Amino acid sequence: MNKRLLTFIGVIAAFLVVAFFKSSNDEQSQKGIPTVGILQLVTHPALDQIHNGAIAGLKDEGFVNGKNIKIDYQNAQADQSNLKTMAQKFINEHAKVTIGIATPAALSLAKAADGQTPVLMGGITDPVGAGLVKSINKPGGNVSGTSGDSPLQAHLGVIKEVVPKAKTLGIIYTSSDHGGTYHAKKMAKLAESQGFKVKLYTIASTNDMQQVAETMANQVDVVYAPQDNGVASAMKTLVNVTNQNKIPVIPAADTMVKDGGIATIAVSQYQIGYQTGKMAGEVLKGKKTATMPVVSVTKGEPVINLKEAQTLGIDLPDKLVQQAKENGEVIQ
If 166 and its partner were Cys, which of 64, 70, 115, 221 is the partner (CB 3.0–4.6 Å)? Predict the structure, then answer.
């Protein structure tokens, strides 16, 4: 065997030895860092914003994926069986803390955790009513996080400003969405107390939106779309129908305005996620969820869709337009 061949073999052997030890060290280092499980109900811009905010919040608390934490992100794509399987996966991995984005995700995590692994809610509506915590100020268990309750009075104010002659308000929500149901019924009571005739409409899934929207558009003057994952996912279908009947839709979230709503006062979903991520960082540092009050993020900013207003032939109030330009968002 010539000297050149021996040298080549020696180099290869040395490379393999180094690679082996590097791989072993990397594996050991990965085993030594805590896992943060993030479970998201479905892909949607509003929920994606919560996810992105959570990553940023963790980073500002000093936790970066691949450096000193391992983030295991799972998306159930609105499948209940996926939620159950993915939540259990986090428990099997001995996740140090988990984050649930949307009520069904948080509920699945809480059930799988069985009072042990810390669960942080990402913008969950009515966490007490959903059975996730005992109280907002004193959760008392392994679940805490953020609540993204909608500013319903502000939304009703937008309805009055944009459609001042409206008498009949249609509210559409998903029957299986706890947050959507909560907000829809709460808005119905509020609107009725202020002189509106209210008609409630439900969908079981996004597949129902076309038919229900067609019925609703012939019976109401304006539509309110609450913070509801099913309605948000089918927002474009809803707007396609209501536009044909020149019926404006006032939604709860900025992403829903971008999908065809005319205006709203929107709570930042990113900020909700950011606060959740910071709370997750505090748990990683040793804080107990039982003593962490649920943080409610309710301050909103005006968002208007000028293109939609033009489509419907509606002149948005100058004051609302100016506020959106100065402190909110204007969609052209």
Answer: 221
In the chain, % helix, strand, coil (3-state, to 5) comes to 50, 20, 30
How far apart CA 150 and CA 173 sit, in angstroms, is 14
Helices (H) and strands (E) in the chain, counts: 13, 13
Q: Tell me: pLDDT of 23 over 90.
A: no
Quote the strand ranges of the chain, DSSP E.
Answer: 35-40, 70-75, 97-101, 119-122, 143-147, 168-174, 197-203, 222-225, 249-251, 263-267, 295-296, 300-305, 329-331
Whole-angstrom distance, CA of residue 244 vs CA of residue 9: 75
Whole-model pTM: value is 0.80
Q: Report CA-CA distances (Å) from 320 to 21, 269, 275.
A: 63, 21, 28
Q: Which of 68, 78, 114 is nearest to 281 (CA)?
A: 68
Express each pLDDT in 227-264 by its tens digit.
Answer: 999 999 999 999 999 999 999 999 999 999 999 999 99
User: Any residues with CB less than 8 A from the CB of 96 and at least 6 apart, and which?
Assistant: 34, 35, 36, 69, 117, 118, 283, 284
